[in-house]
Amino acid sequence: xxxxxxPRPCLSNQKKLIHERKKRGVFKIKPGITGLAQISDxxxxxxxxxxxxxxxxxxxxxxxxxxYYIFKTILKIIR
Length: 79
Hints:
The protein is mainly α. The protein has 4 helices and 2 strands; from the N terminus they run E-H-E-H-H-H. The chain has a two-stranded parallel ribbon with strand order 1-2. Helix 1 (15-24) runs parallel beside helix 3 (47-59). The chain is globular, with a radius of gyration of 12 Å.
């Protein structure tokens, strides 16, 4: 089960990212296709920053931000 907006799923071998996300409660919500990290060009090469960004997205999630992340994702794809 996935949502359109949420933290991108990680691979089982990404131990550092898994640890950082567990520490921040990121796994409590459904993963998604896009989110704050994706529109901010943060990727899995910086696991601590990615987990912190996912945590921030979860804390600040509301209906406006949900559609804002989708809109910004579409703009990035078009460009």
